[in-house]
Specification:
Strand order of the largest sheet: 1-2-3-4
Helix content: under 10%
Shape: globular
Biased composition (Acidic residues): 49-62
Pfam families: WD40 (PF00400)
Distance between the termini: 42 Å
Organism: Curvularia kusanoi
Oligomer: single chain
Function: Required for the formation of N(7)-methylguanine at position 46 (m7G46) in tRNA. In the complex, it is required to stabilize and induce conformational changes of the catalytic subunit.
Number of strands: 28
Strand content: 35-45%
InterPro entries: Trm82, WD40/YVTN_repeat-like_dom_sf, WD40_repeat_dom_sf, WD40_rpt
Length: 493
């Protein structure tokens, strides 16, 4: 079975003339590149070498040792891509592989061959990355709430700072309170937690990142997205987290200074997007998209994404989705050369178009919603290919494994294309682009071994289906993780 493209990115390639492009896609742990001329190249992380057993010393005296049957070593887990961006000059591709928490930088040449320049394992799993406007620095937001900066190209002569001296061993900590002095239920629970922590012992030391990096800022909640903005030579870092916060900070080197917050969300925030007009659009677990004048921290408008999703399901009764009570925004993309954004929601086989211009205000919310683009499968990612100086084709990666409108049920149809292409018409509507889809046929036909012996979804040696199978939980978790950000009713704030 072919594995879906969970990440897409693209660049304009003028080496072969005007209208040239290169499309990048991540399918499991493999990165694919195809140019408008038809050339295709791939990159897959090589497996780590397995240590050979030491040879037995035949000259050793004494009886031979008893042979002990050892269990087979666990198979190496593939590191699947979770993020993919391209530098504005098109020379570099920056990607994140989730299982090993690595930030990888690739260089692309005239023939679009992918050459890895560096891999830097972070201590915490990155959730989002961005590049500064000069393409010199990577901004990495992690699930622990911190934002780090790393040079795009590591400094060759960088020296790892010496480790600090060993701390003096402190006396064992003993709680001053006891079960005899604590009476309230809350305080008793706090004491129990302290005693449990004492039994666990001191926390293990944090792994050191042995490459050039700098901690810029931190949230007290899991970060979900990061955007770098530049206005009138002033730079900003905009971050969003699970606890409904949008924070506007100054750019490097003053990222520790908070300019302000955009408050208004009541559920988690998952995606941020700077529209062409300069407005900030945010979405996540709320029923609406929020449009901000982010420099003044002012909410301009709410656009109902829940109503748009519900209306779309009503127009497609064959999907069998009768009622929609909540949505989880999984992607927001700015359409090049247009005051328009496309929005995807987790488990929804459609994209939703909204007009976002500089005049967006608090009047008439219905004027900004343009309509839905029906898809053959749930939307996973979107990128745009420049087909002319003023227009682009939208390439959409869809889930061809699960039924449209579901994140668990396996579809029965076979040979569903993993990509759909659309072009914008003069009336502002999007229409399927068969010409671009035909150009990407070889991109679609790529098949990879996403986990040893299971690239086609067949059973592995242990009798279980591999990562390429539709019923594998690992596949679902990788494709559909946004709804997990939602807090359960009654959970502590």
């Amino acid at each position: 079975m072919q594995f879906p493209y969970q990440c897409l990115a693209s660049r304009e390639a003028t080496e072969t003339g005007a209208g040239g492009w290169t499309l990048f896609g991540a399918s499991g742990s493999t990165l694919v590149a195809q140019s408008s001329s038809g050339g295709t190249s791939t990159w897959t992380k090589p497996d780590e070498p397995v240590a050979e057993p030491e040879p037995k010393d035949e000259d050793a005296e004494g009886p031979p040792e008893k042979k002990v049957k050892l269990s087979e070593p666990p198979k190496q887990k593939k590191a699947n891509f979770t993020n993919l961006i391209v530098s504005s000059d098109g020379r570099y591709v920056v990607a994140v592989t989730g299982e090993d928490k690595c930030i990888r930088v690739f260089e692309t040449d005239f023939e679009n061959e992918l050459r890895q320049l560096s891999e830097r394992p972070m201590t915490r799993r990155p959730c989002s990355i961005a590049l500064t406007s000069d393409n010199s620095t990577i901004l990495c937001a992690d699930k622990f709430g911190d934002v780090y900066s790393l040079p795009l190209i590591p400094t060759p002569d960088y020296q790892v700072p010496e480790a600090p001296a060993e701390p003096v061993e402190e006396a064992e900590w003993v709680p001053s309170a006891t079960v005899l002095t604590v009476h309230s239920g809350r305080n008793r629970k706090t004491l129990e937690d302290q005693l449990k922590q004492k039994k666990k012992g001191p926390a293990p030391p944090k792994d050191e990142m042995k490459f050039e990096h700098q901690l810029l800022l931190g949230h007290v909640s899991m970060l979900t997205d990061i955007v770098h903005a530049e206005v009138d030579t002033r730079r900003y870092i905009i971050t969003a987290d699970r606890d409904e916060h949008i924070r506007v900070s100054r750019g490097i080197p003053q990222a520790h200074i908070i300019e302000g917050f955009c408050f208004g969300h009541e559920a988690f925030i998952n995606k941020l997007c700077l529209a062409k007009s300069g407005r900030l659009v945010s979405g996540g677990g709320d029923a609406d998209l929020f449009v901000w004048d982010w420099q003044n921290y002012k909410l301009l408008k709410k656009l109902s994404i829940l109503d748009a999703v519900a209306d779309h399901f009503k127009s497609r009764p064959e999907l069998g989705v009768e009622e929609v009570s909540k949505v989880a925004v999984s992607g927001i993309w700015n359409v090049p050369h247009q005051d328009e954004i496309l929005v995807a929601c987790e488990g929804v086989p459609a994209l939703f178009s909204f007009k976002i211009d500089a005049m967006t205000n608090t009047s008439s919310a219905t004027t900004e919603y343009s309509g839905a683009i029906a898809l053959k499968g749930n939307a996973l990612d979107v990128t745009f290919l420049p087909v002319s100086p003023t227009s682009s084709a939208a390439v959409v990666s869809i889930d061809h494994v699960h039924k449209p409108g579901s994140t668990k049920e396996v579809r029965e149809e076979k040979d569903i294309h993993r990509l759909q292409c659309f072009s914008s018409q003069e009336n502002g509507k999007w229409q399927e682009d068969s010409h671009t889809a035909e150009m990407l046929k070889s991109f679609h036909d790529q098949v990879f071994d996403v986990e040893a012996g299971s690239g086609d979804g067949s059973a592995t040696g242990n009798g279980k289906a591999g990562l390429g199978s539709a019923d594998d939980k690992a596949l679902r978790d990788m494709l559909y993780s946004v709804e997990n950000l939602r807090k359960r009713p009654g959970a502590e704030e």
